[in-house]
């Protein structure tokens, strides 16, 4: 049996069902990255917390996933790809149920961390098992189906999350995961046993793992609570910053001297990988932070429902589907650096376009940058694998792919916290400037003539100032985002030419 290729152990019908199961599992995990974005105001209102605190629901999931990704290779070798996939899926479903049952901020954050820890290995494991299910001549189509779910998840997530939050309850954005995970677990055990990987006992860098959790946890807690604690005016924030800094330095020294590090830092000796992965982190962080901030602004300041805010946000992924085949065909014919850099600069132009939004903008004015942005996304994501993994040695591909995904996920979590903090600060500055520029006597006279009471007049003026301050602050963030994207494109241009796609082993990429 061991001499028979894994894909020959399944019938064509079993292969099809197995492929659908793995694609569905990947879809539900990717969906969960964005389904909560438009529901943050609903969750915050229901739990009696601020919208800023509500974003912990997003960042806690991303950080937990990032921490778990470096462990995926070791876990797969220790327990086998099938068991890791099935138990990760079961844990994802269990924590989804607990997220839906949460009644406090602490409970939902803990459960989202559990979701992230269980969901982290599912994307790479679904890819690994797909490659074992299908013969080489069918893997292109299988991976195409897998990639479609990766693009569809972010597109459908905001719409589904918005519709459920508006018409049912935010709890159901988590409950809908449960029956899907049950189906995937049962189907996995029924179909994938013949293609499971062999197991072996491998050493694990426990100290490195502990240091990784310590410094990332300290950093993310500092970023999440800093805006509510006067930043470095609070000794707690100073202490967390010191812990994060010292923990990071010790982590780097420890990992650089280990034979079996939890994160293989040696791949950074390849300049192509280093330039590419930092560009990816900056760009993905800027992109992800925008799809967190835009729905919040639309709902809190513009009066949009969660469904409508989700539709505006989802246009990017929808239009990305139309240009994905073109980007795939150009791969190998056009320098990957040129494709990626041009795509990132296009994203920067869309940020500049958003920086001209105002409170009188209609639906299609807001949707236009999202639609245009989507056309460039495949020209960024698809060649990036060639750009980064093409720079490392073949035996380093798995480590490089894991590190790439780790930094991308951390980039999205850190950028979300920084953008929301910067937006809040910009709003406060804009509020002060606008309050000093308006003519309250004239406004009060007009409102008084319309029959408003003195209390209503004060509240109306304050609401108008808050609304304008929010959009001015958001425009400022979009301009900063554009500069970050230009810096990201510069890093890509500076990187060395990658190997041709045929010489790059992308099987470990995720």
TrEMBL record:
<feature type="transmembrane region" description="Helical">
    <location>
        <begin position="338"/>
        <end position="357"/>
    </location>
</feature>
<dbReference type="InterPro" id="IPR004638">
    <property type="entry name" value="EmrB-like"/>
</dbReference>
<feature type="transmembrane region" description="Helical">
    <location>
        <begin position="146"/>
        <end position="164"/>
    </location>
</feature>
<feature type="transmembrane region" description="Helical">
    <location>
        <begin position="84"/>
        <end position="107"/>
    </location>
</feature>
<feature type="transmembrane region" description="Helical">
    <location>
        <begin position="363"/>
        <end position="382"/>
    </location>
</feature>
<dbReference type="Pfam" id="PF07690">
    <property type="entry name" value="MFS_1"/>
</dbReference>
<feature type="transmembrane region" description="Helical">
    <location>
        <begin position="17"/>
        <end position="36"/>
    </location>
</feature>
<feature type="transmembrane region" description="Helical">
    <location>
        <begin position="235"/>
        <end position="254"/>
    </location>
</feature>
<feature type="transmembrane region" description="Helical">
    <location>
        <begin position="204"/>
        <end position="223"/>
    </location>
</feature>
<protein>
    <submittedName>
        <fullName>DSBA oxidoreductase</fullName>
    </submittedName>
</protein>
<keyword id="KW-1133">Transmembrane helix</keyword>
<feature type="transmembrane region" description="Helical">
    <location>
        <begin position="113"/>
        <end position="134"/>
    </location>
</feature>
<dbReference type="GO" id="GO:0022857">
    <property type="term" value="F:transmembrane transporter activity"/>
</dbReference>
<feature type="transmembrane region" description="Helical">
    <location>
        <begin position="170"/>
        <end position="192"/>
    </location>
</feature>
<keyword id="KW-0472">Membrane</keyword>
<keyword id="KW-1003">Cell membrane</keyword>
<dbReference type="InterPro" id="IPR020846">
    <property type="entry name" value="MFS_dom"/>
</dbReference>
<feature type="domain" description="Major facilitator superfamily (MFS) profile">
    <location>
        <begin position="18"/>
        <end position="499"/>
    </location>
</feature>
<feature type="transmembrane region" description="Helical">
    <location>
        <begin position="56"/>
        <end position="77"/>
    </location>
</feature>
<feature type="transmembrane region" description="Helical">
    <location>
        <begin position="275"/>
        <end position="298"/>
    </location>
</feature>
<dbReference type="GO" id="GO:0005886">
    <property type="term" value="C:plasma membrane"/>
</dbReference>
<feature type="transmembrane region" description="Helical">
    <location>
        <begin position="310"/>
        <end position="331"/>
    </location>
</feature>
<keyword id="KW-0812">Transmembrane</keyword>
<dbReference type="InterPro" id="IPR036259">
    <property type="entry name" value="MFS_trans_sf"/>
</dbReference>
<keyword id="KW-0813">Transport</keyword>
<dbReference type="InterPro" id="IPR011701">
    <property type="entry name" value="MFS"/>
</dbReference>
<feature type="transmembrane region" description="Helical">
    <location>
        <begin position="474"/>
        <end position="494"/>
    </location>
</feature>
<comment type="similarity">
    <text>Belongs to the major facilitator superfamily. EmrB family.</text>
</comment>
């Amino acid at each position: 049996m061991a001499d028979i290729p894994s894909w020959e152990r399944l019938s064509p019908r079993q292969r099809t069902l197995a492929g659908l199961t793995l694609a569905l599992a990947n879809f539900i995990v990717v969906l969960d990255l964005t389904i909560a974005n438009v529901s943050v105001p609903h969750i915050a209102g229901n739990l009696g917390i601020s919208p800023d605190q509500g974003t912990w629901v997003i960042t806690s999931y991303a950080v937990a996933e990032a921490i778990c990704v470096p462990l995926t290779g070791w876990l797969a070798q220790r327990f086998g790809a099938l068991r890791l996939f099935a138990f990760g899926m079961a844990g994802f479903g269990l924590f989804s149920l607990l997220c839906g049952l949460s009644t406090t901020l602490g409970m939902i954050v803990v459960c989202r961390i559990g979701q992230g820890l269980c969901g982290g290995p599912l994307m790479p494991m679904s890819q690994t098992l797909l490659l074992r299910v299908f013969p080489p001549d069918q893997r292109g189509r299988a991976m195409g189906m897998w990639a479609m779910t990766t693009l569809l998840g972010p597109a459908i997530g905001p719409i589904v999350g918005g519709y459920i939050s508006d018409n049912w309850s935010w709890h159901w954005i988590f409950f809908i995961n449960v029956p899907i995970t049950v189906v995937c677990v049962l189907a996995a055990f029924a179909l994938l046993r013949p293609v499971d990987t062999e197991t072996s006992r491998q050493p694990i860098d426990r100290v490195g793992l502990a240091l990784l959790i310590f410094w990332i946890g300290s950093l993310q807690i500092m970023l999440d609570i800093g805006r509510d604690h006067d930043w470095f005016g609070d000794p707690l924030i100073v202490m967390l910053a010191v812990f994060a800094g010292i923990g990071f330095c010790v982590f780097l020294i420890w990992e650089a001297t280990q034979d079996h590090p939890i994160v293989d830092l040696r791949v950074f000796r390849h300049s192509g990988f280093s330039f590419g992965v930092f560009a990816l982190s900056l760009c993905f962080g800027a992109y992800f932070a925008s799809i967190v901030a835009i729905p919040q602004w639309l709902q809190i300041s513009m009066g949009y429902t969660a469904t409508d805010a989700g539709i505006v946000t989802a246009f990017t992924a929808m239009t990305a589907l139309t240009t994905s085949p073109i980007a795939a065909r150009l791969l190998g014919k056009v320098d990957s650096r040129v494709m990626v850099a041009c795509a990132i600069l296009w994203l920067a132009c869309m940020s500049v376009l958003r920086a001209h939004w105002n409170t009188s903008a209609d639906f299609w004015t807001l949707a236009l940058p999202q639609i245009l942005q989507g056309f460039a996304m495949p020209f960024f994501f698809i060649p990036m694998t060639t750009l980064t993994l093409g720079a490392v040695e073949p035996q380093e591909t798995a480590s490089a792919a894991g590190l790439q995904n780790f930094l991308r996920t951390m980039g999205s979590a850190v950028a979300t916290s920084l953008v929301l903090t910067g937006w809040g600060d910009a709003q406060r500055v804009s509020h002060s400037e606008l309050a000093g520029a308006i003519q309250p006597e004239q406004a009060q006279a007009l409102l008084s003539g319309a029959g408003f009471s003195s209390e209503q007049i004060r509240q109306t003026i304050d609401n108008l100032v808050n609304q304008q301050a929010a959009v001015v602050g958001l425009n400022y963030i979009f301009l900063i985002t554009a500069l970050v994207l230009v810096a990201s494109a510069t890093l890509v241009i500076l990187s060395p030419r990658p190997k041709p796609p045929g010489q790059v082993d992308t099987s470990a990429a995720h």
